[in-house]
Amino acid sequence: MDLSLTMQYRQVHYERGLVYSSSGRYDLAIKNFTKAIDLDPDCTIAYYDRGVAYKEMKEYQNAIKDFEQFLELLPTTKNKDEVLAVIDDLKEKLKNPKPAKRWIGLTKADVAERAREAATNRDRDRD
Fold it and tell me: Residue 72: which domain range?
């Protein structure tokens, strides 16, 4: 395949990944970032953004792997300290996962209320 065409396809997949990620469709974002990386393994920003999507899906091990790959490909990034802090935070989450919520004995109304609270908190965290 022509190199310029490959780079165009890579860019299309990368940008689709951004659109999916910004709309909370992290599964589709990951697929598109992965395709961009398959087309151009040196696409550093795709590793970073796929790492963000994995983080949002709580797939911390995959997120760490992508953030580390991002830093390996771009060791002089101005965001290095920030990315290293995220990696440390994710490693801590893997060591000390939060205990599972207890749903036993809750009414449907209780479950619905907790779901609304979680959605409100998630939306507030995105702002």
Answer: 3-99
User: Which residues are CB-neighbours of 77 under 8 A, at least 6 positions away?
Assistant: 70, 71, 83
Residue 49: which CATH number? 1.25.40.10
What pLDDT is stored for residue 111 in this prediction? 67
Q: Report the C-alpha gap between 82 and 91 in whole angstroms.
A: 14
Residue 13 lies inside a defined structural domain of this protein:
yes
104 domain residue, yes or no:
no
Q: What is the pLDDT of residues 80-116, one digit of tens each?
A: 999 999 999 999 999 987 755 555 666 777 767 777 7
CA-CA-CA-CA torsion sign (59, 64, 20, 115): positive
Contacts of 16 (CB under 8 A, 6+ apart): 28, 32
Query: 0.90 cut: is pTM over it?
Result: no
Number of domains in the chain: 1
The pLDDT, as a whole number, for residue 99 is 58
Smallest CA-to-CA distance from 61 within 70, 51, 49 is with 51
